[in-house]
């Protein structure tokens, strides 16, 4: 009887050791899986934070560039500024009407390219706001590159959009910035290679005033997409507290029931 008790006790001890070992292994694996999942979540959160930091850093200049471009398109297609000053008797007025129109286009694509470079090493995953942000950028890009729209003026394929954006990038103290308008004009005057990239666009400015709205559908679509991008970047109108209007739409300004959308006053 004593031998049986001894054997049973030994067997229970062995079984207990096995159970304890299994439980320890299972607990260790569970802890390891938990730590791995936690680390992955922290990594995803860190990537999202990095992406948001980049977008926040360049939100203001991109917002201003998008606004300046849509304002120029609004006035060029829907206003009287460009038809008047493009043929002004003053050469400086004519040049500003033409060159600044091309500059604001290149300036916008410059900031898009800067952001693209900053974000390309970040795996953004399916984070909603970043996906929506990229969607708005794509809509603007597509408006300028689409083949099916009337006319070829201001048609820029995506490689051309990136190229003219890259040409305006300047770097100082490790930070990227966009070339100023005076520097842009200087480059047009003094660099044949630089001007080569913009020669067709400079000629295209005349095409805007020679076409009606139907012939300028590309610019109209681009202006609409830019307004949507601006609304995404500044939904509460705190950064750009001005009236925003899409070409061809009637938008009621604050405090009024309805008003025909007028061209923004910035030239």
Task: Write up what this structure looks like.
- The protein is mainly α and 267 residues long.
- The protein folds into 2 domains: 31 residues; 213 residues, no CATH class.
- It is built from 8 helices and 2 strands.
- The chain has a two-stranded antiparallel ribbon with strand order 1-2.
- A hairpin with a 2-residue loop joins strand 1 and strand 2.
Layout of helices and strands:
Elements: H1 2-78, H2 81-85, H3 91-119, H4 128-145, H5 158-167, E1 169-172, E2 175-178, H6 181-190, H7 192-210, H8 217-233
Antiparallel strand pairs: 1-2
Helix pairs in contact: 1-3, 1-8, 3-5, 3-7, 4-8, 6-7
Keyphrases for this structure?
about 270 residues, elongated, 2 domains, mainly alpha, 8 helices
Class of secondary structure makeup: mainly alpha
Largest sheet composition: 2 strands, antiparallel
Distance between the termini: 106 Å
Anisotropy-based shape? elongated
Query: Helix and strand string, N-terminal first?
Result: HHHHHEEHHH
- Order the strands across the largest sheet as they lie in space: 1-2
Instruction: Please work out how many helical segments DSSP would assign.
Output: 8
- Give the strand content: under 5%
Helix content: 55-70%
Radius of gyration computed on alpha carbons: 30 Å
Unreliable spans: 121-126, 250-266
């Amino acid at each position: 009887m004593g031998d049986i008790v001894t054997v049973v006790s030994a067997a229970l001890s062995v079984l207990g050791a096995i159970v304890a070992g299994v439980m320890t292994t299972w607990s260790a694996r569970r802890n390891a899986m938990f730590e791995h999942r936690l680390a992955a979540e922290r990594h995803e959160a860190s990537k999202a934070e990095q992406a948001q930091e980049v977008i926040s850093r360049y939100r203001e200049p991109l917002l201003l560039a998008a606004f300046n471009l849509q304002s120029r398109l609004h006035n060029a297609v829907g206003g009287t500024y460009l038809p008047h000053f493009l043929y002004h008797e003053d050469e400086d007025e004519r040049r500003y009407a033409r060159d600044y129109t091309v500059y604001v286009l290149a300036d916008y694509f410059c900031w898009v390219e800067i952001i693209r470079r900053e974000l390309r090493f970040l795996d953004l995953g399916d984070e909603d706001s970043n996906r929506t942000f990229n969607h708005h950028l794509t809509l603007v890009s597509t408006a300028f590159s689409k083949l099916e729209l009337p006319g070829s003026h201001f048609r820029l394929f995506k490689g051309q959009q990136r190229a003219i954006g890259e040409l305006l990038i300047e770097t100082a103290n490790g930070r990227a910035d966009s070339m100023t308008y005076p520097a842009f004009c200087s480059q047009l005057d003094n660099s044949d290679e630089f001007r080569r990239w913009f020669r067709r666009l400079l000629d295209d400015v005349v095409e805007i005033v020679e076409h009606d709205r139907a012939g300028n559908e590309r610019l109209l679509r681009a202006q609409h997409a830019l307004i949507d991008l601006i609304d995404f970047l500044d939904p509460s109108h705190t950064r750009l507290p001005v009236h925003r209007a899409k070409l061809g739409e009637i938008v009621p300004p604050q405090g009024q029931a309805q008003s025909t959308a007028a061209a923004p006053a910035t030239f």
